[in-house]
Amino acid sequence: MSAQAPSAVILVRATSFVPNPATAADNAFQADAPPGQSDEATSAKAVAEMDALAAALREAGVRVHVFDDDDHTRPDSVFPNNWLSTHAGGTVAVYPMYASNRRHERRADVLEMLKSEYRVQTVVDYSGLEPDGVFLEGTGAMVLDHVSRVAYTAKSHRADVTVLERFCTDFNYEPMAFDAIDSDGVPVYHTNVIACVGTEVAMIALEMIPDEHRREQVCERLAVTGRTVIELTEEQIREFAGNAVELCGRTSTGKRRYVMAMSARAKRSLRPDQVAAIEESCEIVAVDIPTIELAGGSVRCMIAGIHLDRRPPLAEAELTEAVAAINEDNPVTPDGRYVAMADA
């Protein structure tokens, strides 16, 4: 497993997906479904897109855990990276969410799966800060450099600097907060729509950081390890080019390979030289997800990476007993997906 690129991920198969009205006010990337398209049709298209992403990641050799969710009261549950992150050494973080109808996306069965299949020592839960009106929406609000231990964060009411500093103290990251705005002066709602940090390459819309000195500091910090920094334009950001994530897959022979997961729309927005720079270290895995992108997020938002050590395989008798216990509390479908249970 790479320090930066996880080899396993969590996806949520939201069967009642629609763009969330509660997040539209501050998410400039969000759009309405096509006129006349029913919520049922929107949801069906989103499920097909999520299934296509899961299949593409598995084809690339990434381990994918898919959790079903048919709760119509949590339309954004397809974006689990906002409430959950995992960290080498066995720590899991749970985050405070800005929109009240997103807070019950936090799921006990996801945490129990992590504890049963991976080495989890501690769960640090910041969600109790929500009544105080301070929020930090996970790896949407922060783009984490796990190698250099830097938390790049565009300041907004979804990324409170006080909570950021607390997270960085708890998890040993250096906070690097900055203002980021679009050409209309609207603050960027999540850092991960304008920046992506991989092992040997990073993509970021430096032009959306208005403070020139801070812009230079961010660029220098990204490049300090020799990483190639690809500058994205605001136009590319609006095509979700920054909303990508590096993962560690395997070839059919078991050889490790790095992949950069993004939407097909994002890839189409990239110039040939930018594609070539990414492909120096990663294979691009691009999937069409136009319906899910209506909600203002793309592939990166859909993926909660697992940076945890996997537990060793159990003996057959132990495995049978463990699976029976897990299934009793967290039922699975015949094709191995987890069924939504009680909220955390």
UniProtKB/TrEMBL annotation:
Family annotation (Gene3D superfamilies): L-arginine/glycine Amidinotransferase, Chain A
InterPro entries, alphabetized: Amdntrnsf_FN0238
Alphabetically ordered keywords of this record: Signal
Keyword check for Ribosomal protein: no
Chain ranges passing through the membrane: none
A Pfam family matched in the record: DDAH_eukar
Signal peptide: 1-24
PANTHER family per the UniProt record, alphabetical: AMIDINOTRANSFERASE
NCBIfam families cross-referenced by the UniProt entry: citrull_CtlX
Listed name of the protein: Arginine deiminase-related protein
UniProt organism field: Nocardioides renjunii
